[in-house]
Amino acid sequence: MGVILQIKDLAVSYGHIEAVKGISLDLHEGEITALVGANGAGKSTSLLAVSGLLKPVAGQVVFGGKDLTRLAPHQIVQHGVVQVAEGRAILTTLTVRENLELGGYTRKDRPEMLKDLAWVFSLFPVLKTREDGLAGNLSGGEQQMLAIARALMAKPKVLLLDEPSMGLAPLMVQEIFRVLKEINQTGLTILLVEQNVRQALKIAQHGYVLENGKIVLADSGKNLLHNPKVIEAYLGA
Ligand code: ATP
To answer: Does 67 have pLDDT greater than 90?
Structure first.
C-alpha cells in the first residue's frame, strides 16, 4: 500500500533537551505502524508533534501530500489525523453516549454518524450496555475503550494512539489489541506508540524502534519480533 503519512527528519526539543533528534517514518495506508521503545525514548513527544500539540524545531509531517507541520491541532484533526486523548481524558460527568457524540461534533453527516455510533458499540459492546451511565463510573480499561471509540467518531483517516495498554490488566490489554486489529481490518491506518513491544509488534505490519530520540531499527513487525537486538532489549530471553 502507498504511504499516507510521512514524518521527515522530525526534531522536537523541550528547551535545551532534544527529545526527538531527527526521525523519519512512513505510515502505509491501511496498515498498523508501531513506534516502540523504552520509557523516555521520545515516543510521546513524536506523537504530540504529529498531532500539532508540540511544534517541532525541524522536519515535516506530510499527510496525503499536504504539509501539516505548521497547522493548529484542530486543523490537523479536520484533515483526518486524530489522536486518542491522552490519559483517558474523557468527560467523566457526561454519559458514555454524550462522550461519543462529542467525538463527532464537527461532523455534518448525521445518518453516517449514527451508523458509526452503532459500529463503535459493536466494537465495544460493554460501552453499549453502559450507554446512559456516567463515563466517570467506567473502569480504567472501559475508559480507554471510550477514548478510542470517541476518536473513531471523528471519522479519522489516521488514528494515533499513545500507549493504549498502559496500566491495564492483562485481559483488558488483550481486548484493546484485539479491537485495534479489528479497526485496522476496516482499512484504517494506525500509528501505535507502545512500551508493550511484543503485543504492538504482533499486530503491526511495520515497526520502528526508538532509542534516545533516534530510530535505531525499522522493519516489518514480524521481523522485529524475531530480531535478536529487539529480543534482548525489549522482549526478554
Ligand atoms: P514514556 O513512555 O515515558 O512517555 P516516551 O518514549 O514517550 O516515554 P517522551 O515522553 O517523549 O518519551 O520523552 C522524551 C524525552 O523528553 C525524555 O527525556 C523526557 O524526560 C523529556 N521530556 C518529556 N516531556 C518533557 C517536558 N514537558 N519537559 C521537559 N522534558 C520533557
So the answer is: yes
Predicted pLDDT at 167: 86
- Separation of alpha carbons 124 and 133, rounded Å: 15
Q: Which residue in the block uniquely carries the three cell numbers 489522536?
A: 83
The CATH homologous superfamily to which domain 3-80+157-235 belongs is P-loop containing nucleotide triphosphate hydrolases (3.40.50.300)
Strand-pair category, 32-36 with 17-28? unpaired
pTM above 0.90, yes or no: yes
| Structural domain spans, the chain | 3-80+157-235, 90-155
Residue nearest to ligand 1 atom 15, measured at CA: 19
Which residue's CA lies nearest to atom 31 of ligand 1?
Answer: 14
Cell numbers at 179, concatenated = 479491537
Q: Is the complex ipTM higher than 0.90?
A: yes
Identify the burial level of 65 via C-beta atoms within 10 angstroms of its C-beta, where 0-12 means exposed, 13-18 middle and 19 or more buried: exposed
